[in-house]
Each structure stands twice: as structure tokens, then as C-alpha cells.
Write a structure and sequence with these properties.
Distance between the termini: 44 Å
Mean pLDDT: 94
Strand order of the largest sheet: 1-2-3-4-5-6-7
Strand content: 15-25%
Shape: globular
Number of helices: 8
Oligomer: single chain
Order of helices and strands: EEEEHEHHEEEEEEHHHEEHH
Largest sheet: 7 strands, mixed
Helix content: 10-25%
């Protein structure tokens, strides 16, 4: 299996890119991330039941899973949330953060007791950690979910962008980090044109996140982007025609 990778570490606050399955499979490839802040942890888009054993093993190499105090979900898709009941049984004191729009859907994943669920209002919210550090939950609506959020870590200056920034790897050509944006964008273009709702939504998001200092964009699928790749990605997405901008193409006209 691909090993855990430390993306940021200041000695107290750490941001991990968790490992991958060793072999490619005929399912949607997903990334999971873990923020460790002192003696507590935040797990980002933990994934479905299929990847739960691997993600649990990766988390256990870093911290005792019972120390996970927050589970953050960008949106409702099964590759993001379908393992939620498994994580709630492991991280027994954790809170679940997900859009208000999707709280009522969680019983379909077995979450009937919603006292541990914190619905995120449309305008966003924060996760306050015991140390005093704060994680920002930033709206990313219609990219691609109607109720969608990203998580910005101002200590690490990392934006967990969910499906925004996704790349679909060619068979046998996975890579953990984008080095050359012009090559990398070829693996992002088709996904973004189909799964992002419109240029209006893209532009609003870019204008919002550009106010933050972002050293790394960490998406839920594909490779992370750093430095110059971050700037190029934001510029590319801001001008992208996608979704309903291209709707005639999807009807075969």
C-alpha cells in the first residue's frame, strides 16, 4: 500500500495524506486526509465501507482512532459518506460535520441517532479545536453537490477541496502530486466539465478561496497541487465553461 505522507508538520499541528490501496481497482479512486492537532484528530472524507479497513489501518499508524474528535464530510456521495457508521463506532466521541441539506439523508447510511451530527449552514462554519486552532468550512455549492463544503486549515495553509481539483488517472499512471500543471490538467478537464455545475459556480468559489493563503490544494480524488500549480489551477477553473454552460453537448446536439 502507498504509505502515509506528511504534507505539513510544525511539531504540534500535522496534516497527513493517507495511503492508497496498492493495486488499482474498478472503483472510484479516493483520497483521505487526517489533521492531527495535539492529542486530537480530524478525519476528512473518510470514504466508503470498501476502503474502511485500509483507512483505519493508515490512521492507526498515526494516532489512536478514538482520538478522532471530528469527521468532516464535503457532501453526501457514497464514496465520501457510506462508511460513516463504521467511523462513529470507532471514534465514539467524534462529531460529524456535513451540510444541513444532507443531515436527513444520514439514516440511509445507518445514522439514526443524530445528536453527534452538526449540520453546516449554507454560509459555512468553523471547527474549533481544543488547542484554540480553528478549521474553516467554506461553501463550495454546486461544485458538484448542491450542498458542498471545503475545509481550509489556516495553520497548514492547506485547502481540502473535495471534488474540486479532481483528476482521473490513466490506467497504471497514478501519482501523488502534480508537478507539471499543463500535463496534469489533461487529467482534470473532462471531470470538471461534466461534474461542476457552471462557470458561475466556479467563479464564485475561486473568488472566495483566493482570499486565503493556500500553499496546497488537496482534492478527494487524484493528486495534490502545490505552489505554482495552485495558482494555475485557480486561474484555469475561473474561466472554465462546464455543466449547464455545455448542456447541449450532453444531449447530443
Amino acid at each position: 500500500m502507498y504509505q502515509n505522507e506528511v504534507i505539513f508538520d510544525n511539531g504540534f499541528h500535522k496534516f497527513y495524506f493517507l495511503g492508497w490501496e496498492e493495486k488499482e481497482e474498478e472503483i472510484v479512486q479516493t483520497n483521505q486526509y487526517l489533521i492531527v492537532d495535539g492529542d486530537e484528530a480530524v478525519l476528512l472524507d473518510p470514504g466508503g465501507a470498501h476502503v474502511f479497513p485500509r483507512v483505519l489501518a493508515n490512521v492507526s499508524e498515526i494516532i489512536e482512532p478514538s482520538k478522532i474528535t471530528h469527521l468532516f464530510y464535503t457532501h453526501q456521495d457514497p464514496d465520501v459518506t457510506s462508511g460513516i457508521i463504521l467511523w462513529l463506532s470507532i471514534a465514539e466521541s467524534s462529531k460529524v460535520h456535513i451540510s444541513n441539506l444532507w443531515v436527513r439523508f444520514l439514516p440511509h447510511f445507518g445514522v439514526y441517532d443524530q445528536r453527534r451530527v452538526v449540520g453546516i449552514p449554507d454560509h459555512g462554519d468553523t471547527i474549533k479545536l481544543k488547542s484554540g486552532n480553528t478549521l474553516e468550512l467554506i461553501p463550495a455549492h454546486y461544485l458538484h453537490s448542491t450542498g458542498n463544503f471545503n475545509l481550509y486549515d489556516p495553520v497548514a495553509k492547506i485547502l481540502f477541496s473535495g471534488d474540486i481539483g479532481t483528476c482521473v488517472f490513466p490506467a497504471g499512471k497514478r501519482y501523488r502530486e502534480a508537478v507539471d500543471f499543463e500535463s496534469h490538467v489533461k487529467n482534470m478537464e473532462a471531470f470538471h466539465k461534466r461534474y461542476m455545475a457552471s462557470n458561475v459556480a466556479c467563479r464564485k468559489w475561486v473568488d472566495t478561496v483566493s482570499k486565503k493563503q493556500i500553499d496546497v490544494i488537496a482534492p478527494q480524488h487524484g493528486a495534490i497541487m502545490r505552489g505554482e500549480c495552485v495558482k494555475k489551477f485557480l486561474n484555469w477553473l475561473k474561466d472554465l465553461k462546464c455543466g449547464i454552460d455545455l448542456i447541449d453537448q450532453f444531449y447530443g446536439k
